[in-house]
Amino acid sequence: MDSSYYELLMERALLEAKKGYDEGEVPVGAVIADTEGNIISCTHNQPIGLNDPTAHAEILAMRRAGEALRNYRLTGLTLFVTVEPCLMCIGAAIHSRISTLVFGANDPKGGAAGSLYNPAIDTRLNHRIEIISGVREKECGDLLRDFFKARRNL
Questions:
Q1: CA 113 to CA 115: how far, in whole Å?
Q2: Residue from 7, 25, 36, 58 carrying the catalytic annotation
Q3: Maximum distance among all alpha carbons in the chain?
Q4: Which residues contact 31 (CB under 8 A, 6 or more apart)?
Q5: Which is it for strands 29-33 and 100-105: parallel, antiparallel or unpaired?
Q6: 29-33, strands of its sheet edge to edge
Q7: Do residues 39 and 33 lie in contact, with contact meaning Cβ atoms separated by under 8 Å?
Q8: Strand, coil or helix: 37
Q9: Which tens digit of pLDDT belongs to each residue from 60-79?
Q10: Distances (CA, A) of 51 to 26, 47, 100, 132
Q11: What is residue 20's predicted lDDT score, i.e. its pLDDT?
């Protein structure tokens, strides 16, 4: 895939993150697409709205993709997310057999795709995920920083 493919699908993830921002959720958006760029699912963080600590954008996107495909295995699909996934989300991506992870901004405090941990490339596990980071990194990071800055000023 070329970088324009990643940019375009990250734009959709950013739109989802902005929906979360408007709902008062931490603005993280996720998209799952096939190799031709067809979107299988897209969503944003919703743990507050759903009263569910597992309702991260990535988890919800994987659930919806599984339902759409009628399969819990998401082999061959790419997960696009605006912020580096946490341990829970990368663990779910490994179990679902996501093939590629593309993310925007690093999460130095909780990132599990290279910042703090990186189980997606651990050879001791039975599945590994290709990781591509830094796609629209500034926009993704700015959205998150703006959200927390606004929250501190309330």
A1: 6
A2: 58
A3: 46
A4: 9, 10, 12, 13, 16, 39, 41, 42, 61, 79, 80, 81
A5: unpaired
A6: 39-44, 29-33, 78-83, 100-105, 130-133
A7: yes
A8: coil
A9: 999 999 999 999 999 999 99
A10: 14, 5, 29, 31
A11: 98
Bridge partners of 29, per DSSP, are 44
Residue 108 one-letter amino acid: P
DSSP category for residue 31? E
| Beta strand spans in 9-149 (E) | 29-33, 39-44, 78-83, 100-105, 130-133
* Residues of the chain scoring pLDDT < 50: none
- Catalytic residue list contains 139: no
Residue 96 in tokens:
């679902």
Rounded Cα–Cα distance for residues 56 and 34 (Å): 21
